[in-house]
Design a protein that fits this description.
Strand order of the largest sheet: 5-6-7-3-8-9
Number of domains: 2
Radius of gyration: 18 Å
Structural class: alpha/beta
CATH topology of the largest domain: Rossmann fold
Number of strands: 9
Shape: globular
Number of helices: 9
CATH class of the largest domain: Alpha Beta
Distance between the termini: 33 Å
CATH superfamily of the largest domain: P-loop containing nucleotide triphosphate hydrolases
Order of helices and strands: EEEHEHEHHHHEHEHEEH
């Protein structure tokens, strides 16, 4: 994995962080007392029941939502600084490609908006990214000509064109069939290894969490909070594992037990 020695050891640091929303019924606490360090260059997966704040945490890191209590730091500074520096990119469940733009034009879009030229940052060549996501030769294709998996590859390339330090992925493969999903899991891990980008990935799939994550953050709901953090680095050297192995089965089974406790609202000591 490429060295990133100039960056702080923790790409993300949350201390007693909370996010609240104003509703007609009053103030709603989406998540609270979140304490989490995510190391630079690591791959962390968030799982938990619906409504436990997984997507909310991604939006907090991306500076799309404010921190109502506690602190949030991205690359050692407030999330706003990372957003303005384009240090964070987001991939959503829907590819959100512009239907009137070709593959190449969709990937290059972030370089054409938001005063990119004024930032003085470099970027990855679009053709290089097309090779990285295995879409070479489809530069001129329009979104309607692509499969769901291909559209998500383009969305990943678009997120990487600004050379972000952190890639946030909110259930990007949830709508895909199982075989395509597993194939894209492989691609994401390959891209992560090649780029050294810090990845924070939200999923509802235990198998996906077990396969992708170096660490898995299990969340509980009402309000959203961290129930447990499972470190898989010893069980998966170099973050590699065979899906058909006994070790993978044991990891998945262990995650299921922890997730069941999270559904009951039990928090690890």
């Amino acid at each position: 994995m490429p060295a990133r020695s100039s960056r702080p050891p923790n790409a993300i640091a949350l201390r007693d962080a909370a996010v609240t929303f104003a509703t007609d019924a009053g103030l709603f606490t989406a998540c609270q007392n979140i304490n989490l360090d995510i190391e630079t260059g690591s791959f962390v997966v968030l799982i938990g029941p619906s409504g436990c704040g997984k997507s909310t945490l991604l939006r907090l890191v991306a500076d799309l939502l404010p921190c109502a209590a506690g602190t949030a730091e991205v690359n050692g500074a407030p999330p706003e600084a990372a957003r303005k520096a384009r240090a964070v990119s987001f991939v959503f469940q829907d590819s959100t490609l512009l239907p009137w733009r070709s593959v190449m034009d969709n990937i290059s879009l972030p370089l054409q908006v938001g005063r990119w030229a004024a930032l003085g940052r470099g970027h990855r060549p679009v053709k290089e990214l097309l090779e990285l996501v295995r879409m070479s030769g489809r530069e001129a294709a329009m979104p309607h000509e692509l499969s769901g998996g291909m559209r998500q590859r383009v969305a990943i390339a678009r997120a990487l064109v600004t050379q972000p330090d952190i890639l946030l992925m909110d259930e990007p493969f949830a709508a895909l069939d199982e075989i395509t999903r597993e194939s894209l899991n492989e691609e994401v891990l390959r891209i992560w290894r090649e780029t050294g980008t810090t990845v924070v990935f939200v999923t509802h799939s235990l198998e996906e969490a077990a396969y992708l994550g170096q660490r898995v953050v299990v969340m509980a709901a009402n309000p959203g909070r961290i129930a447990d953090i499972i470190d898989l680095r010893q069980a998966k050297p170099d973050n590699r594992i065979d899906r058909s192995s006994q070790a993978f089965f044991e990891i998945t089974t262990g995650l299921r037990r922890v997730l069941e406790k999270a559904y009951r609202g039990e928090i690890a000591a």
